[in-house]
Amino acid sequence: MSLKSILLPIAATAIAATAAFAENVKIITLDPGHFHAALVQKTMVPGVDAEVHVYAPAGPELDRHLALINGFNTRADNPTKWVTKVHTSPDYLEKMLAERPGNLVIISGNNAKKSRYILECVKAGLNVLADKPMAINPEGLALIEEAYKVAEEKKLVLLDIMTERSEITTILQKELSRFPEVFGTLDKGSPENPSVTKESVHHFSKLVNGAPLQRPPWFFDPKQQGEAIVDVTTHLTDLVQWECFPGEIISPADVKLLKARSWDTAITLEQFTKATKLDAWPDFLKPMVGADNVLKTPANGEFTYTLRGVHAKVSVLWNFEAPAGAGDTHDSLLRGTKAALHIRQGKEQGYKPVLYIEPAAKPDDAWRAALATAISQISTTYPGVEVKENGDRWELVIPDKYKVGHEAHFGQVTERFLGFLQGKPVPDWEVPNTLAKYRTLMEAWRMSR
């Protein structure tokens, strides 16, 4: 079945959500190998039953998940009240599909298994909220295509967790680009100078919920985690579509890949031990370990493409550890004919995202007035947002109440998803654009080879 044959009928009408549930939404968590599975439960979400069923093989990944949930339940500030029912067995997937003690499945774990999990869940009549990436290779994409077709037939909701749409500087970057008197129109750019760039820097060693994160060893294996070019780029490619052509359906003909590449991050055994608590390389990683006993994992990737003629470049880099005081960072540029909207998150910004408006030419009184008008309109939705002149650019001043952080975005995504479950229509662009996004990633994956 071709991607186009799925995209076109979906694009014709909005995907209907399931009928509103008479009772609370009941969560099933399936094989939670990644900490994102727990972040969905970092806060109690209205409309969600406190009892959560977890189906997984016994082992350290399940133990870490349960420890995170227990940490949320026992923290001093606003503790949660989750009641976890654990089901462990070698046939955990089959058992979950047979028992189905809930109506929403959370999937976040080993990415090599994820596409099959998603398809089996929707076949069983279960709604799915899946962590990215839903597919890490063309074979996985075929399963996701089928899953969306089944979900449409059964009127289920299937979405991936796009947390970056909730980040306030990204939201305001998108909003400001809608003011032509300030931004102009989106520049087409060139392969050498794309008008849209998004770069994300991540780290194998980091803190989550205030504690050192223990990575599963498969996280370093591209056959299980997926290469960077199909992993974090899911977020970046999604944002390119979401910001540049909001509310519009992206078709396969809109995308043209120009170049792609991937490269390694070197990880010493000492670093691997710090991240995983294992003191030896597992067998599946040994083929990537050199004579110097250093792991070379293809953790970095980037590609350049055009979306409806607009040149865009997305890049993902993985380092082992961030500089002191820093964390994962994001750099995002939208260049218009009158101004560029640039999110920077470097040392100058204290490693916190800051949105700048950078005029293409010396601003005149009319442009300044247009900027004041734009900020005034935006502040009706986001009270307290202001702008200040900072050299030859303007800096957006955003109140701290909007800077909730990456971990809190999972709750925001879950609340939006629950709205779809309870009868709010899924936007007509959401599913076809998700499929277009994954098709773009798979073409980049092929080209990088």
Percent of residues in helices comes to 25-40%
Instruction: Output the CATH class name of the largest domain.
Output: Alpha Beta
Domain count: 2
Provide the β-strand percentage band. Answer: 15-25%
Mean pLDDT: 91
SSE pattern, N- to C-terminal: HEHEHEHEHEHEHHEEEHEHEEEEEHEEHH
- The tally of strands reads 17
Question: So what's the overall shape?
Answer: globular
Look at the structure and name the CATH superfamily of the largest domain.
Dihydrodipicolinate Reductase, domain 2
For the largest beta sheet, what order do the strands appear in spatially?
10-11-12-7-13-14-15-17-16
How would you classify the helix and strand content by structural class?
alpha/beta
Structure, described:
The protein has 449 residues and is of the alpha/beta class. The chain has two domains: 3-163 and 407-424, Rossmann fold; 165-404, Dihydrodipicolinate Reductase, domain 2. Helices cover 34% and strands 24% of the residues. It is built from 13 helices and 17 strands. The chain has helices at 3-12, 36-39, 60-74, 92-99, 111-123, 138-154, 168-176, 180-183, 233-244, 269-276, 365-381, 406-421, 430-447, and strands spanning 27-30, 51-56, 83-88, 104-107, 127-130, 158-160, 196-205, 207-208, 211-212, 255-268, 294-307, 310-321, 329-335, 339-344, 354-359, 386-390, 393-397. The strands form three sheets. It has a nine-stranded mixed β-sheet with strand order 10-11-12-7-13-14-15-17-16. The chain has a six-stranded parallel β-sheet with strand order 3-2-1-4-5-6, with helices on both faces. The chain has a two-stranded antiparallel sheet with strand order 8-9. Strand 11 and strand 12 (310-321) form a beta hairpin. It is globular and about 70 Å long. 42% of the residues are buried. Residues 1-22 have low confidence and may be disordered.
